[in-house]
Amino acid sequence: MQTLRRLSALILKEFLTIIKDPKSRFVVIVPPIIQFFIFSYGATFDLENVRYAVFDESRSVLSRSFLADVEGTGRFRLTGYLEDAGQVKQTIDNEKARLVIHIGPRFEERLQSGRSVQIQVIADGRSPNVAMIAIGYLGTIVENFNRTLLEQGLAQGSRPGLALVERAWFNENLSSRWFMVSALGGVISTVVVMILTSLSVAREREFGTFDQLLVAPFSPVEILVGKSMPGIVFGMLDALIFAGGAVLWFHIPFRGTVSALMVSLLCFIITIVGIGLLVSSLSTTMQQGLLGAFLFLMPAITLSGLATPVENMPMWLQQANMFNPVRHIITALRRIFLEGADLGTVWPQIWPLLIMACVTLPLAAWLFRRRSV
Amino acid sequence: MNSSVSSVSVALTTKDTGVETAPLMHADRVCKTFDTPGGKKIPALDGVSLKIFQGRVTGLVGADGAGKTTLIRIAAGLLVPTAGQMTLLGLDSVDHSLEIQSRVGYMPQKFGLYQDLTVIENLRLYADLQGVALKTRHDRFDKLLTMTDLAPYTKRRAGALSGGMKQKLGLACALVKSPELLLLDEPTVGVDPVSRRELWKIVYDLVEKDRIGVLVSTAYLDEAQRCDQVKVLHQGRLLAQGSPDSFTAGMQGRVFLAAPDEQMRARQIYTRLAGQEGIADATIRSGRVRVVLNSPLSPENGNNQETGKQKIASLLNRSASTITTAVPVFEDAFMALIPRGDAQLHTPSTDQDKPWTPEPSSGEDAAVITNNLCKKFGDFTAVSNLTLDVRRGEIFGLLGPNGAGKSTTFRMLCGLLPATSGEIRVAGRNLRRSRAKARARLGYMAQQFSLYGQLSVKENFKFFGRAYGLSGKQLKIRMAWAFAEFGLDPWQDKPAGALPGGYKQRLSMATALLHEPDILFLDEPTSGVDPFARREFWLRINGFAEQGVTVIVTTHFMEEAEYCDRMVIISRGKTLAMGTPGEIRSLARTPENPDPTMDDAFIALSQGDRP
Amino acid sequence: MTRFFMRLFGVLRKETLQILRDPSSIILALVMPLVLLIIFGYGVSLDAEHVPMVLVNNDKGPMSRELAARFAGSANFKIKTAGSMTQAQSLVLARKAEGIIILQNNFTAILGGAAAGTGTGYLAPVQVIINGTDANRARLIEGYIKSIGAKWASMRVARGQTAMAPLVSISQRIWFNEAAISRYFLIPGLITLIMTLIGILLTALVIAREWERGTMEAMLVTPLRKVDILLGKTLPYYFLGMFGMGMSVVVGTTLFGVPFRGSVGALVGLSSLFLLTCLGFGLFLSAAIRIQFVAAQISIVAGYLPAFFLSGLIFDLESTPKFIQIISYIFPARYFVTIAHTLFAAGDVWPVLLPNAMVLAFMAFLFLGLAYRKMSKRLE
Hints:
Chain A contains 14 helices and five strands. Chain A is of the alpha/beta class. Chain A has a four-stranded mixed sheet, with helices on both faces. The longest helix of chain A has 32 residues.
């Protein structure tokens, strides 16, 4: 009874200090939502408006028909026609266009006589990823163009070839926004919870109020619970707002179960709270707390697989990444949103989080008293 | 109020102004208002006019918020006056700030020493910034280092110096280019008496040899006594000015001493007198109660002394013959001069409505015992072999300069810091190892203001009350008591961080007392607080001690030791002396100084300890 | 004049000593860039290698075996074979494989002409199912499969065997980065992040700290001029930032083999412009906000995050909605990311470098000017 009363007073105080401090309030609410929307729109691998130039030496019906196919996809934006080969280098070098499509002079002639012909695509390798994806788009256009040629008998084809019949599971239109936005909320909540908790003990240390708590009849466990609550509540709130925003605003499908979402988010946020409190109880000033949070957040987010696949990393880094909680929640969120995972399916992502929480939280509580200098 | 101002205001006596010299600094009706975030305008200075002359030390005194720092900052060119004109060395402080800054030395309250730089690097930096020529630099550094006794520590980082050494280094930096005028903003706050005397000696030497002018603000009224001129600021106005003697002259026959006897201890006399009608000030000094009467009782006859004695005697229920007159000092004049508004002293609750009775639990007679307590941080020994015992119901003082190891000891006693070796028992338990419940009978007031600034006064009370297990009706009663006792009623819903300094102090104390603790720990409760708040504070402490609460208090104000039953003086982690104030003072008694003060005692005691 | 240099050297020496003795400066200026370099060099890659795939070959003919061998031999894939579709599906669902390649039982027959029909009947289908969660990766995988198929077909044509090359095919040239290695693209961009970190975050923190510790007040009452303070604060962090940049370039080109095709002069000049912009912003921030905590937060929100997300460092800006592109023009990072990519991959292409450099020069001038104006010798 006494314990409960003390605890409720402590939790109430933790919330009041955040709600009443304009700086903390701001950190918790406004920037996360702005970040979520701006980054949801900004963080994309889908190409739009790829600027391209055409060097068409053929100037024939067929070459124009191919170029019309390119234009028809809506992914590309024509910046102009080139007159001679010398302009190609200048166009790419000066970033006037990111692609040059070069069609040779005997394009139509060769096709009509049933010989194969190449379309040369010169891409700007300064952004190799854009180049690769754009060429991939063009490949699909070429394939369809070939099929049309054969079907309409516009060109002669006598011998059989290969046809690629593709299907993507979970994300049928291969929209990278689905991929980013389903996981982005997890990352932004990480930042919020981390800043909130990494400062919570450090702030009290700096203002001397932590001594008051230690002198009062609170046990370390009570302080730990009290300090964790705002992080957990605000973190969950933000994460759920982002999940809602993803489904309602960005129309990301939600195929998994709500229970899986809630449980994995909760476990994840508790883990982050543990790390944040650990950082905070190691720091004596807010600046140290913030710096510590930054030192954790930067590698954790960069290596989380949010933007670049974890599978591309060297083995040692992938193994080290097992200790990165952000990596686990990102995987879990994508599986829940896009693959329709339920609680059992995301268990492999949940248990590492639980283990981390079991280490960091008690360590933080132990440090409350240890580090008081 | 204004009439009293004019009555004490003393004109400059022409004989020692050095009429022919122009003033080094001249404030002409200087006003300064600050805008608060809420759009309110707060006047910090309100038409202050004064002059500072070459070759003398001018002291600037006043309560917190009187405008001392603002005035000095305007002189240093850091602030622009809202109205009026500030002229230094014949130059306007706004238009010629760069020129002025190269000819004036300024030492802010929190001096800008770079903690990561060594002593010599700090000096070199300020020499570079002031453009001291390389040729003359070496001699100047030598001189400054000798003067400040810092020569052996040139390679030490400023952050690792003691409080007194830091202030001396700050002074050396401000003096690096022999300034014509030296501005010092509370240079001796938190400095031990030995270093304080050394600092003042440096300043006087400079005035004597280099004939510079010095403007120094101070919270120590005994320091003001030693200035050539004193300017008293109150609520942004110049209340009075003149030589210290001109101040004390008007106090003749208004200052008395009441000695304790068998029936009444000094503390009881003090409690009885403080805050009574007609009494401007009561303090315990050298074991006796010093009383200052508010105004001459009957201005027409010369028999003031007798009337005064009788008045005091009647308050104490004893004969007037036990009261003696005393020679007035500046402090007495100052206390009588400053009008008291809401800072009126409270008389603590009398015995009838005694708020709580501490339980005499667990048979043990001592509230706190330590045995050979040691604390080391790496190689540095912060506390060595401290053995003390605090009895129940006593006020026990932990005295020493900043960095002496007071706070470390204190934090070990409260269980905030583990001891390296030795034993601590508080109410029969070791707080560091015992369960949370054991701490419920303690009250703790930290050195800096450490309540939740964003929470309102009420919310702070509720939180700490519940934290210590109060609830429901009990909590309500205690909160009502705290609001009334500490005069916090009008501030209930204000954020604690927005309270004025003195109220923060009261709130901290109220919070520590909310749960009726048996043992009260107070860490530097009077540091950074003006003389008025300090008196109010000690009066309260006395009241609680009379009710049987054990109080353990640290302070670096040596004269405050007089309010303690017993105390220990520590310096550099070592115990210098332990005993009652009388016992400690007697250690410094010499034929030349038959009636030493606590400061004298500290200096005598630490002489054997200095390297 | 000598007074001016004396003051300046005094401030410079002090700043240098402070940086050297303050662990947080060292962490921000040296440790963070190294951590970032290693993370980006090793951990961040958009290229797919050894992608686990399942191959279901229902055709027992020689041609399907030949094609399957091609897939197995590719460095892009790590091929497992599955006997049935159900088995393959369960591998994908268990995340043991990222996709399935299926060769139907009439594969050899169609290609051998035995099952000749009309229209698309001439084409032997290669079915591909990919886990599309990571859309970008899925597209890359598709691309790899296509190019393996195309190479196999053209080889058969060259050997005069049946099967044909597609009528129209693409011959791709990716200039500056023929193998499309993403590291060549990420490391130059990283320099932007490192300089942002030192220029904005560190500067803002250090000056706010001077305010908090009261050293600023002592500096203000010395005859220092505003120019002295500005220069004294800019130069040490300028050198620190340039050091971070140099370190990234050296580590990037040696350890990670990123080609550098531009001139060192252009690199130093242009990164100076960017760094000055950052320093100007950092100085302005700390002159306006004297609290470390707030300064740090703003420099992360307005400096670091936009440099990461809205600069073209990883995500292509031209593909984002218009309003995002408009926002990105406010932040200096995008101009320098373009400059860095061009300098490393393409060389000194002035028509690209110059317009970006001019914007940066304008911004540097603007922010330094604002910082100078905001900086006051007074406390108000």
